[in-house]
């Protein structure tokens, strides 16, 4: 059996967390969802995700601070900004994120971005949401 890519998905919207969990688990990702970033470093330390998907809210600052906290302790963990901001494609990198996914999101694109940024990316371990 192939290894599951571990994804920590943070979003303040419970419906989005539920949808992410269902979609990604169906695609054989190992998913932990959380509502806020208050204890994100502790959760990253215990769950050991290969990639973090983080809600980049409209004002951005709490997400940027949480990203910096994670990166200061876990430099090798990619953090993906997940946002409905119209300019996320311009701001994600200078805010410290490794990549971004726009909301609303395409399921295949979501999986492609998570696969691309995970530490297990190769032809044997890439997972599909189809």
Question: What does this protein structure show overall?
Answer:
The protein is an alpha/beta fold. The protein has one domain: Response regulator (Rossmann fold, 3-Layer(aba) Sandwich). Helix content is 38%, strand content 18%. The two termini are 18 Å apart. 33% of the residues are buried. The model is unreliable at 120-125 (pLDDT under 50).
Based on Cα principal axes, name the global outline.
globular
Number of strands: 5
Structural class: alpha/beta
User: Regarding CATH, which class?
Assistant: Alpha Beta
What is the topology, as strand order, of the major beta sheet?
A: 2-1-3-4-5
Order of helices and strands: EHEHEHEHEH
CATH homologous superfamily (4th level) name: Response regulator
Unreliable residue stretches:
120-125
Proportion in β-strands: 15-25%
Supply the number of structural domains.
1
Helix content: 25-40%
Taking the sheet with the most strands, its summary is: 5 strands, parallel
Number of helices: 5
Radius of gyration (CA) equals 13 Å
What do the pLDDT scores average to? 89
**CATH architecture annotation name:** 3-Layer(aba) Sandwich
Break the fold down into its secondary structure elements and pairings:
Layout: E1 6-10, H1 14-26, E2 30-34, H2 40-47, E3 51-55, H3 61-73, E4 79-83, H4 88-91, E5 99-102, H5 107-117
Brief synopsis:
This protein has 130 residues and is of the alpha/beta class.
Which tags fit this structure?
single chain, about 130 residues, alpha/beta, 5-stranded parallel beta sheet, 5 strands
């Amino acid at each position: 059996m192939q290894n599951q890519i571990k994804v920590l998905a943070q979003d303040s919207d419970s419906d989005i967390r539920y949808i992410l969990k269902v979609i990604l688990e169906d695609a054989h990702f190992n998913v932990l969802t959380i509502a806020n970033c208050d204890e994100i470093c502790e959760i990253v330390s215990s769950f050991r995700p290969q990639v973090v998907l983080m809600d980049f809210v409209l004002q951005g600052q709490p997400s940027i601070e949480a990203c910096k906290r994670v990166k200061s302790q876990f430099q090798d963990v990619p953090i993906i900004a997940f946002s409905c901001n119209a300019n996320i494609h311009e701001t994600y990198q200078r805010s410290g994120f490794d990549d971004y996914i726009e909301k609303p999101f395409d399921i295949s694109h979501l999986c492609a971005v998570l696969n691309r940024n995970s530490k297990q990316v190769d032809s044997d371990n890439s997972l599909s949401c189809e």
